[in-house]
Amino acid sequence: MTTQGKARILTGDTPTSRLHIGHWVGSLENRVQLQENYDCYFLLANMHAFTTRAEKAAEIRRDTIEIVKDWLAAGIDPNRSTLVLQTEVPAIAELSWFFAMLLPFNRVMRNPTLKTEIELKDLGDKYSFGFPLYAVGQCADILAFRAELVPVGEDQVAHIEMCREVARKFAWNYCGVSPDAEDADYEKLGSIFPIPKALVGRVGRLVGVDGKNKMSKSLGNAIFLSDTPKEIKKKLGQLYTGRQTMDEPGDTDNALFQYVRAFIKDEARIKELEDRYRRGDNIGDGHIKVEVAEAIEGLLGPMRERRAQFEGPSGDDMVVNILSEHAKRANVVAEETLYLAKEKMHMQLARRRLSFE
User: DSSP assignment, residue 184?
Assistant: First the structure.
């Protein structure tokens, strides 16, 4: 528990593009709601973005700022939560090095999320040496802030499991905790790290508008949080179900009905649509897509309005100022964690002090 008596949360995003509605239902919605009762740290993994885009530093900077705008528009409150710019927290890089010594290389490469990314991005054997290291870095992101909960999408649960392994091994090697100890008892037994738990959003994996793959900018199948009503309607129109006529019975386990259940709030209406669709009761895919588009616009419209205040150069400056101020907060916690870790590792020879302009 933190000094405020609240459990701590750490989660975040790699700045590869703007955020989309898959991010919302998978994790971002959870983050906004959890701010009330948790000590929240939200991380921008701009260092990890270099693993596949090292030659595009200016784009990474732009995407970092755009994601912060998405966060603020979605309801992340900088007065209640801390926004962590990864490159401004040196303790994360140091902890990544130490944690890398606790994980066999083959264990890192067996991480299913890592293997999936290599396949989806068609990296083959051409990925950088740093690419698999980012999986270890994610452990450092979480443990640097001694987080107890990590809100993530379903595809990130494997990363959290590896983080749990690192926390346990550190405790066994350096804190005198028995490998037989229960996870809940680690801190009580002397570990400086809690064993974090994944917290999956209400929709673990939202399919993209191609109707097949997980929603992703790189696959061109995403509805972004900043999309206009016209763009939302056009993209939903591409969603393929295979159904031919409105009188034909339909399968409510298809992609379209995942959107119905994710974005239409009225449970009675959802059941009515499911019932009519299964029976082929004069209800077409196009009609349902229009209704879903209206529901998504009801969610995104207020976000676009909030985002408008951060547009243009002055908006970028506002974001940079927030990140600079929050870097001070983040480093207070991360530097303490690093000091405690080094103390357990018998490296307490000096203690640095960071200062920020």
Answer: G
